[in-house]
Amino acid sequence: MPHTTSFARNQWYVVAYTYEVGRELLGRTVLGEPLVLYRGEGDGTAVALSDRCVHRR
After folding, report:
1. What is the separation, in whole angstroms, between the first and last Cα of the chain?
2. CA–CA dist 5, 17 (Å, integer)
3. What are residue 49's DSSP bridge partners?
């Protein structure tokens, strides 16, 4: 029987090192959820959003 691992949701998980997240979009999948990471223009704050096409939902 295959081993199944469950992960807690609504928790903090490391998805990238600081040097990996820049102005260019960085795609990652965490717990089966596609994410896109980038840094904002102003103060360079890291941002994570759901990676999905708004045109196709």
Report:
1. 35
2. 24
3. 36
Beta strands in the chain (DSSP E): 26-30, 33-39, 46-50
Residue in the block written with tokens 């081993």:
3
Q: Which of 25, 27, 52, 54 is nearest to 39 (CA)?
A: 25
Q: Where are the domains of the chain?
A: 25-57
Per-position pLDDT tens, the chain of length 57? 565 667 888 888 899 999 999 999 999 999 888 999 999 999 999 999 998 877 765
Q: Using CA atoms, how far apart are residues 9 and 6, in angstroms rounded to an integer? A: 9
